[in-house]
Amino acid sequence: MLKGFRQRLLRVDLTNRRIWVEPIAEDVLRRFLGGSGLGAWYHFQETTASTDPLSPENLLGFFAGPATGTLVPTSGRHAVVARSPLTGLWGEADVGGRWGWTLKRAGYDGVLISGAADEPVYLWINDDEIEIRPAGHLWGKDTYSVDELIKGETTAKTVVGSIGPAGENLVKVAAIMFDGKDARAAGRTGLGAVMGSKKLKAIAVSGSQDVPVANPEGIRRLLQELLPLMKRQAQGMTNYGTAGGMVTIEEVGDLPIKNWQEGSWPEGAKKLSGQHMAETILVGRYYCASCVIGCGRVTEVKEGPYLTGRGAGPEYETLSTLGAMCLIDDIAAINYGGELCNRYGLDTISTGALIALAMEAYEKGYLSPEQTGGRPVKWGDPEIMLQLISDIAQRRGLGAILAEGVRASVKRLGLPPEFDLEVKGLELPAHDPRAYNSIAVGYATSNRGACHLQGFSHVLEKSVTLPELGYPELQDRFAVDGKGILTARAQDLMAIYDSLKMCKFSLFAGVKPTHMLTWLNYVTGWSMDMKEFLQIGERIFNLKRLYNLHLGVDGRQDTLPLRILQQKRSTGGAAENLPPLSQMLKEYYQYRGWDENGVPTSKKLAELGLEREAGS
Amino acid sequence: MLKGFRQRLLRVDLTNRRIWVEPIAEDVLRRFLGGSGLGAWYHFQETTASTDPLSPENLLGFFAGPATGTLVPTSGRHAVVARSPLTGLWGEADVGGRWGWTLKRAGYDGVLISGAADEPVYLWINDDEIEIRPAGHLWGKDTYSVDELIKGETTAKTVVGSIGPAGENLVKVAAIMFDGKDARAAGRTGLGAVMGSKKLKAIAVSGSQDVPVANPEGIRRLLQELLPLMKRQAQGMTNYGTAGGMVTIEEVGDLPIKNWQEGSWPEGAKKLSGQHMAETILVGRYYCASCVIGCGRVTEVKEGPYLTGRGAGPEYETLSTLGAMCLIDDIAAINYGGELCNRYGLDTISTGALIALAMEAYEKGYLSPEQTGGRPVKWGDPEIMLQLISDIAQRRGLGAILAEGVRASVKRLGLPPEFDLEVKGLELPAHDPRAYNSIAVGYATSNRGACHLQGFSHVLEKSVTLPELGYPELQDRFAVDGKGILTARAQDLMAIYDSLKMCKFSLFAGVKPTHMLTWLNYVTGWSMDMKEFLQIGERIFNLKRLYNLHLGVDGRQDTLPLRILQQKRSTGGAAENLPPLSQMLKEYYQYRGWDENGVPTSKKLAELGLEREAGS
To answer: CA B159, CA B182: separation in Å to the nearest integer?
Structure first.
């Protein structure tokens, strides 16, 4: 049995204002670990196909991982999960910062919110003292302000997760923001709107307890052994953040440019690079709890039109979507736009995609002067970008349409199908499936819709070897045979990352699955082997698939936007490649043990111990 | 598909003197790898429960591994497999040296012998030229002489595997010996008698072809990366051989002393230690093909009654069974006895066990003067030891009884049950299950009967950590909970070692399962992951179990000798421990997915893809 490995779920029913604590069964932990895996299990048990995402029946879960709160490096993360109002399907977002770490120190592995309050509230978790507090005075406030106000009402050490106006306004691309102006985002799948629908403005946490582990000495020893390697290997990430690879990413044709229409934009990429940021607006680095990499950027803009105070700077995704996607190369403007998204509580990826859609629609004559408020919505115009961010968050003018996401906007604006740049309702992040064939399979099959992080497979084609997965060498990004298998294995490993919860960037620091498994065993006191460990990822991925299948998904939704499938870009590092999706998907299904409709066979479900889940 | 990964089986039907070559299907290789796994698969397909071990219908297989013949360190091994005439069950033996390496260079992964010759023959494999040659002139000769004679008839580079007089005489503990006076033994389960029953004196091999691999550069790179670590970690093994641990092994109560009756013999252990050998009779070290450890001993005795020329010296097992088991502490005498066993072609482990049985039986009055030829069979007498070796090999006097093995000798001599020191008919090797609880589970469940190498689990309780198996720290040897699981996992890994074929001593040199998997992928061009890799071991172990189940084995045979289960030794490093076998076995069965009778459930067989095998 576990020595001191605590497993407690905090339950909050906002409708009835009930709060209670439940144990989490060890066999459930061993099958789903924590994070989004455990979150998926609760949703699978307790919601149905008729649960409306914005109804009180939807659950909103915040789950740390078994290692969160410990010294295990990069473990200081948590997952937010719910049925997504943007996609109507499985929704999850992965967050860094200090909130999950603090939740664990308050004595909880997760918080599961049900029901809805009848007026704005926030949840205050202070070790064993838990209160549902009125939040009328916070409603309408941006997330940076909310953070300061709640700290003032509680303690200076309190860590706050909150929605901004976007979540309150049920904007479908609303994020939940953590850590105030350090701004760690649960960005994707519109979970801020779920929080808004529950009238839950914030969850504030303070914790004073050590997180017990089975083998603290082992954890420390492995950390000491790996630390020099991790710091050395991650040096580029530490120095230049996630945008340190911007120039290379543009060179290989991986950067989305002008709403996925162009293949090359070298001058722009240079201006948006982490190196350029370091020379201009960078004033510091940010480390999440237990992190040794520090990819987070701290920026400040002291002159020009886009002044900001010291706070979280833009990551690669923000620079690409608010920048390259819109042909904007002014890093200060994007920094400002990023902060606006953070304060409003908006997913920068989906928001950038929506702005790029508007710019292309305007250029091609699909927007009327009434719809644009008479202003030209031109490529490369920072002012329009900033205006649209506010409009989306406030549901004003064109923003009221865009606030529903790309899929709905294409319909509402009557745009041709090639504008429909989403998978299963989620806007594409800033990695082009035409540059890495595995990204094509990954976007098409990710359970939360188009997502690079649910597969993260292209790192195996770029810079990371994973002998335990069968890839001791870098893989050819344009290969077709074996790509379905590679994607499936990467997704299963990422499902473990999202559940354990470790940061995927630890891969860039030399952390391998064997290290992850060892840390898990040290934390829990288990003696799990690699076979069982890797199978957990497969189980979790399949459970989320089952969740979506119950909502009507099948293989027909495992596809990509027309533009990605059919339109070569003619320039750049992947000018001629179009991913042969159906061929790769066939291999993927076969390897996964799914039938030709993308449904897991009963043999596969039995192998994964998911018979009961499948039958319910 | 495989790039250049060759997979060919040489078939020889001695009855009809037919020789042909067959491809080995890739899916079979991917499921069973090579070595004893692949050998088990052929036996499972092509023999029945009524196949008498000494009949022409029994198959005798010699299988190298996928990595044999390459630079992969410690890969130069092969397996010999057949239904065992000693146990009546699954028989296999694992051999080093250069024979397997040379077979691969001749273009074959294995040789499978069926039928029987009507007069003595030997097989001559010289690349594609293969002959069945007369061996009347070799019959009766010892293995060292046979090696020289065949080299004279073929080439100086020829590598010979042969039986000695013991195998010819169908002695049930007869070995097959390789590499002449370098003397690498396929010792266990009496396979020399199978070779003798086929009138096959020897298989001589010469090969001139490079062994193609998919990624030679990768193999070389990983070798270079690991080489310094391997050499450093294995330094003790290089310096002092397998008996370098003799003193410690005695201290912890792991050494069998006086036929498993005593717990302590420190002065004797010192005299039999690798350190003492290095100070006395050691003149060199022996490296198997592709080995970087060199645990093999080369000895020469130049004075005293036990003169030997330069040749293979005794290993730990020989020193323990001919030595400690018989209370003999004269290392030169044991060296001589070891060479006798090598020349006659006898398994030193079983032979030592038989001599110890005779000594105890004599002491306790169970042997008549007629049975002993009037000579006292006293503990500690080297002359008796040497005499009995010859008598067993020649089936003379008491040796004619002992030649049938311990189980049959106990019956024939009317000895009480506590003399019955075997499991499933195989004599115990020199590690005491009372010193390591996992050895108890391992001996009880090993598919070839009492064997430390089929589990090798005690290394996890002693000096080796295996994070991939869930054991990043050394385990408590006297623990009970978890021991069934640990043993099963270790057995599955060893099934991979026995099939790949790498040397298990690479574990002492820092080689981990991830390295093995990577090498396999480099050799084959596969992209196998760790889940599939570890499952291969489980599949192979279960296939051998199925083979034995078809021969009538069930859980009742998963037991240990009474002496081990019931008799504490009162002295030494494990004086008070008796392994609680039934409790550990329960966990073991459950973890394995076997029912309470030790039969794999259909669910487990389906999971392992062994439905077809189970149904046949």
So the answer is: 11
Task: Indicate which of A474, A480, A529 best probes the interface with B, i.e. most B CBs within 10 Å of its own CB.
Answer: A529
3-state secondary structure of A308: strand
3-state secondary structure B37-86: HHHHHHHHHHCCCCCCCCCCCCCEEEEECCCCCCCCCCCCCEEEEEECCC
* Amino acid identity for residue A381 in this structure: D
**Residue reference for tokens 């006297």:** B478
Question: How far away is chain A from the Cα of B542, in angstroms, using its nearest Cα?
Answer: 17
Among B596, B498, B594, B489, which Cα is nearest to B546's? B594
DSSP helix/strand/coil, B129? strand
pLDDT digits 0-9 by tens, B513-538: 999 999 999 999 999 999 999 999 99
Of the candidates B425, B442, B412, the residue with the CA atom closest to the CA atom of residue B85: B425
Q: Rounded distance, CA B206 to CA B335, Å?
A: 30
Q: Among the CATH numbers 3.40.50.720, 3.30.9.10, 3.60.9.10, 3.30.1300.10, which is that of A8-206?
A: 3.60.9.10
Q: What is the length of chain B?
A: 616
| Residue B443 tokens, joined | 């001996």
- Determine contact, residues B440/B254, Cβ cutoff 8 Å: no
Q: What is the CA radius of gyration of chain B?
A: 22
Among the listed residues B375, B263, B392, B276, the one whose alpha carbon sits nearest the alpha carbon of residue B334: B276
* N-term to C-term CA, chain B: 29
> Quick one: how many helices (H) and strands (E) in chain B?
26, 17
Among the listed residues A81, A85, A80, the one whose alpha carbon sits nearest the alpha carbon of residue A53 = A85
The answer to whether A486 contacts B518, with C-beta atoms less than 8 Å apart, is no
Interface contact A471, partner B, CB < 8 A: yes
| CATH 1.10.569.10 holds for A236-423 | yes
Pairing between β-strand B200-206 and β-strand B159-162 as defined by DSSP bridges: antiparallel
Residue B461 has pLDDT above 60, yes or no: yes
For chain B, which residues make up each domain, given as ranges? Answer: 8-206, 236-423, 427-615
Q: Which helix (H) or strand (E) holds A444?
A: helix A437-445
B541 CA to centre of own chain = 16
Tell me the per-residue pLDDT of B270-297, one tens digit each, with 9 for 90 and over. Answer: 999 999 999 999 999 999 999 999 999 9
Give the C-alpha separation, B34 to B2, whole Å: 15
- CATH number for the domain running over A427-615: 1.10.599.10
- Token couple for B388: 């009995």
Q: B262 pairs with which residues across the strands?
A: B257
Q: Are B593 and B542 in contact (CB under 8 A)?
A: no
CA distance A3 to chain B (A): 14
CB of A1 within 8 Å of a chain B CB? The answer is no
Establish if B472 touches chain A: CB-CB under 8 angstroms.
yes
User: Cα B440–B445–B446 angle (5° rounding)?
Assistant: 100
CB of A541 within 8 Å of a chain B CB? The answer is: no
CA–CA–CA angle B17, B20, B26 (5° rounding):
145
B104, B442 in Cβ contact below 8 A? no
Tell me phi and psi for residue A9, to 5 degrees.
-110, 130
- Give me the interface pTM, i.e. the ipTM: 0.93
Q: Which of B470, B513, B529 sits opposite A527 (nearest CB)?
A: B470
Within A529-581, strands assigned E span none
Give residue-wise pLDDT tens across range A237-285. 999 999 999 999 999 999 999 999 999 999 999 999 999 999 999 999 9
- With an 8 Å Cβ cutoff, is B482 touching chain A? yes
Q: Is A275 on the interface with B (CB under 8 A)?
A: no
CA distance A523 to A70: 8
C-alpha pair distances (Å), A175 with each of A54, A273, A387: 14, 25, 18
Q: What is the pLDDT of residues B68-79, one digit of tens each?
A: 999 999 999 999
